[in-house]
Every structure is written in structure tokens, then in C-alpha cells.
Amino acid sequence: MLKIVKRNLGIYFMILACFDFALMGACAKLLSEELSSIEIMFFRNIIGVVFIFYMLKKTKVRKKGGRLGLLIFRGISGTLSLYLFFYNAANITLGGTFAFQKTAPIFITLIAFFWFKENIGFKGWCGILIAFCGVLFITQPWANEQMHSGFDIKNSILGILSGFFAALALTSVRQLRKYYAAEKIALSFILTGTLMPFASMLVGSFYAPKELDFLLAPFIMPSFKAWILIAIMGTLGTLYQIHITKSYGVAKQAGIVAGVSYLDVVFSLFVGLLLGDDLPSAIVFLGIIGIIFGGLILIKGKK
């Protein structure tokens, strides 16, 4: 029994990480009743800064560095993805929000194909096609306003862009790992993810048009209830980082663990229903399954 547990420890940690992430999304959704998605992201990241600095003090890994521009690019692209992720968490169902985020493997594969000239293969193209059909089923661009599933054009575009920017950030990490320790790469992201929303709120205090509410919003002093949720969200975010780090650290097969990571879509779907999200229609649910299945094919193809 103990051998089975040890062999699957990476999977268990990934399941915990998925649950942490889904609950963190739930906190963000609850906070969105009072605060802007930009302010929620700011508090989530500023708590993360403390954790990353603690990790940096403990790390003994030293690498040569020297790719500052790429490091900054990773921070900006990752932060833009978070802008859109938190905005969608506030405005559409949690299941839909997480499903859009999981389009990142599609874009990673396409970037690798066009930029790094990596071979995708027949299975890879099948995975991309299935996941793309999943996106179409969720967004339903052919539907009129009366029969639409609740994902309007703005949220659909922002959701897809969230996956795209996440893919840019993750692709850049592939190169940065040669020059920087993982903790320094994470620090560039978390610091940028604190400074950019701070600037957005500063500008948003004077200029915050409705059409740019995903980028600009004024600061609002949180209530006592909001502070509690912020503390819980920050704790869950820290636990997520711990669990996902341990998951890949002890996993025998990274591809299997990456596949298990899609459970956060399932968890978020159920958590969203508990918070009052509408039950997804059959075609939207089919779209979510399509994105998960297509992503799993892409992950399996890279093993």
C-alpha cells in the first residue's frame, strides 16, 4: 500500500493543487462582488511576493542569468493572462473561466511549431482541432443573443487571450530555465503582477472607461469580510504553489501529472455551481470536455 502511495505521490499533490486553485478562484469570484478584478489580482500577488522571497532565501541554486529582457517579457505576459483570468472569474462561470485558461497548451504547441519549428505530428493536430472545437462550443459565435450561453463576445475574446498570454509566459520559461533558478523566474512574474495592477489602479482613479474595466479600475478599500477572503485567497495561492512544486518534484512521469492538472476545471465547475453559477448547457459542457480532451492529447504527445 505504501509503495502505491509513493508511486502516485505526484498525482496526489497535483489533485490538491487543483483543489487549491479552484477554491482560490471561488474567493476571487466572491471578492468581485465588492472589488475590481484588478484589485483582487493585486492582493493575490502581493501576498505571493512574501512567499517567493522566503523561497529565494532558502534556495541554493545559482545560474548565470543574463536574459533580463526575456525575464521581463515572462512577467508581463503572465500578468496580462492573470488580468483576463480574474476578470472572467468575476463575470462568467468559474468552469468557463478555467476552461479558457486551459487553452494554453494549444497555443504553446502552435508557438513551438511556428517559432521553434517543432514537429506537431498527426495526434498533435488532432488535439488542437478537438480543443479548438471545444472553444467554439463554449463561445458559440453562431448563436444569436437570445439563445447564447452567457459567454458574450468580450468575455470570450478575453478568455482566449488569457490562454494565449499564459502560453507566451510558459514558453518563455523554457528558455529562462537555462539562465535563472525557478524561484527567480517566479519572482519576476509575481513582482510584475503586483506592480502592473498597482499602476492600473493608480491610473484608474482618474481614468477608468467601462470598455477597459479589465485593465483600469480605481482602488476600493476592502471591508472586513473582504480582508478575510483576501487572506484565505493568499493562503490558498501559497498552498497551490507548494503543492504544484512538490507534484512535479516527486512525479515519476510529468506528462501524467500535467494531465491530472485539468482537474481544476472540474473542481471549479462544481465550486461555481455551489456559488450560484448556472449549470452549463449541453453544448457548453461538451466544449469544456473538448478543451480538456484536446489538451490531454497534446500533453500525451509530448511525453
From TrEMBL:
Record GO cellular component, one term: membrane
Coarse class of the protein's main subcellular location: membrane
Cross-referenced Gene3D superfamilies: 1.10.3730.20
A Pfam cross-reference name: EamA
Annotated EamA domain residues: 9-139
Topological type in the membrane: Multi-pass membrane protein
Family matches, as InterPro entries: EamA_dom, EmrE-like
Entry keyword set: Membrane, Transmembrane, Transmembrane helix
Entry keyword annotation includes Oxidoreductase: no
Name the record gives this protein: Putative membrane protein, putative permease (EamA domain), type 1
Annotated organism of origin: Campylobacter cuniculorum DSM 23162 = LMG 24588
Organism ancestry: Bacteria, Pseudomonadati, Campylobacterota, Epsilonproteobacteria, Campylobacterales
